[in-house]
Design brief:
The structure holds three protein chains of three kinds. By secondary structure, chain A is mainly alpha-helical. Chain A is 82% helix and 0% strand. Chain A is globular and about 55 Å long. The longest helix of chain B has 28 residues. Chain B has two helices and nine strands, in the order H-E-E-E-E-E-E-E-E-E-H. Chain C is of the alpha/beta class. Chain C is globular and about 75 Å long. Chain C is built from ten helices and 13 strands. The chains are: A mainly alpha, B alpha+beta, C alpha/beta. Chains A and C meet through helix 1 and helix 5 of A and helix 2 of C.
Chain lengths: 250, 180, 317
Amino acid sequence: MSPALRIARKEAGELVLGLRGQLWLAVTTAVLSGFSLLLVGSQELSLLDNAQVVYDMAGLITALGALLAVIAGIDAIGGERERGSLLPLLLAPVPRGSILVGKLGGPVAAWAVMLALAAPYFWAIGSTGQNLTSGMAALLALGTPVVLGFGFLGVALGAWMQSGRAALSVALTGLVLSASPLLLGPSLRQSAIGRMFDAVNPFSAALNCFDAVIIDSQGAVSQASHAVVTMVWLAVTAWAAAAAMRRLSR
Amino acid sequence: MQYRSMLIATLLAVPLLAGAARHTRAAAELAVSLAPIATNPAAPRMGDRLAFTSSIRNTGAAPVEGLIAWLSLVQVDPGHEQPVDLEDWSAHKAIALATLAPGAEVTTRWPMRLIQSGQYRVVVSAVSRAGDALTPSRFVDFTVAPKPVVESRRVLPVALGVPALLVVSLLLRRRRSAAI
Amino acid sequence: MGLIEIEHLQLSIDEVPVLRDVSLAVAPGEVLGLLGPNGAGKTTTIAAGLGLLRPEGGTVRLMGADPWTGGAVPRRRVGVLPDPNGFYDWMTAPDYLGFFADLHGVANDAAANERRMANVGLAPRRGQRIGTFSRGMRQRLGLARALIGDPLLLVLDEPTNGLDPRGRREIHDLLLDLAGQGVGILLCTHILDDAERLCGRVCVIDAGRTVVQGKLADLLLGRNSQRRFRLNLAGPLPGEGAAPGPAHVRILHQSSEYAIVDIDPHVTPAEAWRELFFLGWPIVTIAPEGGGLEALYLALTAGNTQVVRAAAAEPVP
């Protein structure tokens, strides 16, 4: 087994099967169940179209995944450093790149579990509507680079900043800013700055893709520009994480 | 946000309901027609798509400057009469034209997705910069049949069952690890 | 060729010079003690030696390669016990050792991990989560991890921290056994007794500079650090007050039972004792008083100590 895979397995086991992972699974199911129950319990929300509901849930899952990924990324470096367990890993005969890839094992596993957990909810709220399958495919295709990018961002911040709390503050601020289109919706695009932000923000790209695929029934090919934004985001954050890992000394 | 949308919809729809019978000098210069397209479903249900085509023609001798036309939707179910916010129904809410020459005509397609069941009335209204009254089209009525959107018989088992399964599996894991 | 060779190492952290001129080398089979007061630069020296920090001057060779540019390869046969030494507390010790065995690309099976556990006296704890381990058990586990991959060089930072006397002795025996098998050991410690028991050579650094490096025995002899002795006497000293005192011995304390003396740096202890015998001192036994490595260490790092004391506004004796 390659060192990267071994580290990934350990990270995944720690995050998904550990106490933190169990808590996170509980939070995720609570949020999804709460959202679903609101749909049938609230008269106003019950009037929403299936496609709209599926779109909302896709955005919600992406936000939860990104939140988990950025926290897990910070903890994988900053948390381990504070617990003193990072140094033995850095001193093992393993290239830094393998450690970085392995450290992403936690967010990847957690994201996979979240998608699996969300599947029955998608079925429950969206199977009587349109574009459920293509919507879930869009979530997998564009939500994944967004979420993993936030995982890389967490690793980079955890490596750069000596304090885990400071890294967490910066990361959460960035995440809230990036995920703001989830709350602001199309009104964000009413100003030039908003449109610029919308054009480069990976979270916006994912949401706009979900909107186009799920609500407007557009084809996958037409979403290439959104996919490019999310892939650029993934590449930039991966580069930042790799640079931060190279200069990590303790 | 919703109240603001309702207000806008009301502002757009009230003149439409009240102004259909009004005839002014400006109104005589424009002729607005509205019709459903041929491919619309005969008995539409929630989630289906409808489209309407409007034609606005300058019937006067002078160009019409600053033409604006918009789509309005009202629900007319007895006891539920109200303007409808088009936000969730359609992204095509209005058009603007700098000028419309005498005798010229502009045709617009208005697609919409049917969000809620009920009896509806749709109309396109036009105004120009110089005109002092709007020119509405004739109403087009349609009825949207209900369709279950989010079914509680699907949602409840999942929303309650998945957390329950999670709790059971965690308890089993804890018991197993305690046994080891 | 040394397993690790550091020459005139210079390094700053956040533009503050930490290492100004550090040199040391560890050969196969030898135990080098790296000594120095807090803040002297011991941990930074180790970090640079292992390729975690980039030197600004001087040279560092680990297993014959530059550890900064050599990536993970030079560390393949190097075992490290850092301080602080953290673990994955949710794992059991065999799982933990198995994880690092996989990273080293060596056997990760129950028998191999059991052997690793037994090597450091942790076999009875095989089913226990690391989070429940005492400090001493964690040190043992850290040592077991350092030994994964059959290292040619061990870099140990305070390896006996938290161990009880029996545990310390067991670890001493293990390290001496490894050194006997040809493993080079760089031992960074504050416990001078450990250094005296284990180290053939020591390197003392202070304020980022190597103050001295060499064989411990030579240093003790060459530096004449063993200058203060306790002489147990059979009775009072002869002609007290009337006869001239010894020329090469300074008496710090005297009674009818014992005397504490400093001998002149220009004479050997044997010459001093001969003089005292000729003067009729009733000496029964001679024992070093506060000497050895501790005296050498304090002498070599005196400047730093005085600075610390002055800063604390304590009287300097």
